[in-house]
Amino acid sequence: MPRPAAIKGHNEGIPDLALAFGKAECDFMLGSTRDDAAIAAYRIVERKAIEELGGHREQRKNVELAQVVLVCACRLLHLYSRATDVGESQVRNEETEVKNAHLRVQEGPAEMRDHKLTINSTLQRRPLNRSDFAQETQAIVDQAFRQSHG
Predict the structure, then answer these.
(1) Is 86 part of a structural domain of the chain?
(2) 42 within a domain of the structure (yes/no)
(3) Has residue 29 been placed in a domain?
(4) CB–CB of 97/49 below 8 Å?
(5) Largest pairwise CA distance in the chain
């Protein structure tokens, strides 16, 4: 019996970005996976989001993808900072990744021509105006650095 047509953007065995991100976030928040498994999951999501960044023409989608990369970088910083087998240089590298990802997110809305457009929040799963989106993004970064130094 022939299989139904595949969902657009879905490859068998490779979860789509939203599904992989949602699973990584749930596992992270619930603490239901080992740190090395969580790191691997966020690396996969981060890589997938970066791959998709270049493929979209709509600026809002690029900003949303950049926020996914930022959240992944923040989670990775947290995971590496609490790992006992990771050197200080790896943690500093992750801090740099968070800063770079934050800059990428900040650049996106600045490049959008229509200042009335909303941007979908990756974490809240709802549209936010530019100001609220910027505040949310800053809060994500602030929390990541507090957790990594605390």
Answers:
(1) yes
(2) yes
(3) yes
(4) no
(5) 57
Q: Tell me, what DSSP letter sits at residue 3?
A: P
Angle at 8 between CA 7 and CA 11, to 5 degrees: 75
DSSP string, 45-84: HHHHHHHHHTT---HHHHHHHHHHHHHHHHHHHHHHHH-T
pLDDT digits (tens, 9 = 90+) for 11-47: 455 568 999 999 999 999 999 889 999 999 999 999 9
Let me know if residue 3 belongs to a domain.
no
* 86-145 tens-digit pLDDT: 778 888 999 999 999 999 999 887 777 777 888 999 888 899 998 899 999 999 999 999
Signed CA dihedral, 15, 19, 25, 30: sign only: negative
Domain interval for residue 112: 17-149
Which amino acid is it at 124? Q
> Which of 143, 137, 146 minimizes the C-alpha distance to 107?
137
The separation between the first and the last C-alpha atoms of the chain, rounded to the nearest angstrom, is: 57
pTM: 0.85
